[in-house]
Amino acid sequence: MPAGSDTLWDIAIAEVEKRENAEGDDEGVEISEKSVLFMGNKNGGKTTIILRCLDREESPKPTLALEYTFGRRARRHNRPKDIAHFWELGGGTSLVELIRIPITSSNVKAFAIVLVLDLSKPDELWTTMESLLQVTRNHVNKILTKLGKTNPEVATEIKQRMWNNLQKDHPDYELVDPFPLPLVIIGSKYDIFHEFDSEVRKIISKTLRFVSHYYGASLVFTSKSEALLLKARILINNLAFGFDKSKSVSVDHSRPLFIPAGLDSLNQIGAPPASDSDIGKLHANTPLELWKKVFEKTFPPKGSCDLQYTRDPAQDLQYAEYEVDVMRAQKKQLCSRIISLK
């Protein structure tokens, strides 16, 4: 071998040193770790949205109770990948108490909510939204109260962050009530919604614009269309991985809405979709309550019993386990015999 040329061994040593130096360069780089909880209507498309965000070509399965997965993304080339924990609450509103499991005092600082509302079911829309957000808000507020005593700096930071999406000179700064966690509201099944009467679409769109703006949330309408899923993905990637969110806005009620947090206004949204005489007959203590009454006058809500989760997970074939199922059947048969002897 000619003098001065590298042996295979020399090349291997150089490659190892190169990799070690590269790893050393990343030692000072902080790896972000965030959590996102998806909640909303039963069969509203939550799983489909999560799978698309994670680039997984899987067929969505019904979600039972609370399910978990995660994703990893690098913000820049040759940098460590950040981690995002994705939680999905199944059962519509009936299992909302399970939110206490993923949202804790140790991760609330890096937590966000994605509320998926089925646009094809307007009679479930307000009840679903109100129930899920109310319980979540109460739980987060309890955590913040405790943190105020044990870690006041973190509690203060979270409370201040609630207002980040709204500039202090925004005309609605004193008129809104931001949600305590970053929030994205997704109106799913736009393909079905688009076939509704134009006036019906306008009422639903205006109402969701008001609710999103009032809570300091982003709003996007989506369906199985790749173009619309991409828009939802942009907002979710902002929550999960800190990617830049688009500043484009679409407020035309005849098209899919796309409104990042803080880019709407009460003046642009307009008054609740009802006549002055009808509004005068409604007694409401807050703007949110007024919009609720106007919306539910057009779309009377389903009874809460209609929204309950009635499926028995033990009968779901995707969770079948032969040995467990055989023992369960034997126990059930034994219990029936004991009851019949009494």
Task: Explain what the structure shows.
- This protein is α/β, with parallel strands linked by helices and 342 residues long.
- It has 11 helices and 7 strands.
- The protein has a 7-stranded mixed sheet, with helices on both faces.
- Helix 6 packs antiparallel against helix 10.
- It is globular.
- About 2% of the residues have low confidence.
Brief descriptors of the model:
7 strands; alpha/beta
What composes the largest sheet?
Answer: 7 strands, mixed
Output mean pLDDT: 86
Alpha carbon gyration radius: 25 Å
Residue windows where pLDDT falls under 50 for at least 5 positions: 305-310
Q: Percent of residues in helical segments?
A: 40-55%
Strand content: 5-15%
Estimate the global geometry from the Cα principal axes. Answer: globular
Order of helices and strands: HEHEEEHHEHHEHEHHHH
Q: Short description, anyone?
A:
With 342 residues, the chain is an alpha/beta fold.
Topology:
Elements: H1 8-25, E1 33-40, H2 46-53, E2 66-73, E3 82-89, E4 111-118, H3 122-150, H4 152-161, E5 183-188, H5 190-193, H6 198-214, E6 218-221, H7 226-241, E7 258-259, H8 266-269, H9 276-281, H10 287-298, H11 322-341
Parallel strand pairs: 1-3, 1-4, 4-5, 5-6
Antiparallel strand pairs: 2-3, 6-7
Main location: cytoplasm
Family: Belongs to the dynein light intermediate chain family.
Subcellular location: Cytoplasm, Cytoskeleton, Cilium axoneme; Cytoplasm, Cytoskeleton, Cilium basal body; Cytoplasm, Cytoskeleton, Microtubule organizing center, Centrosome
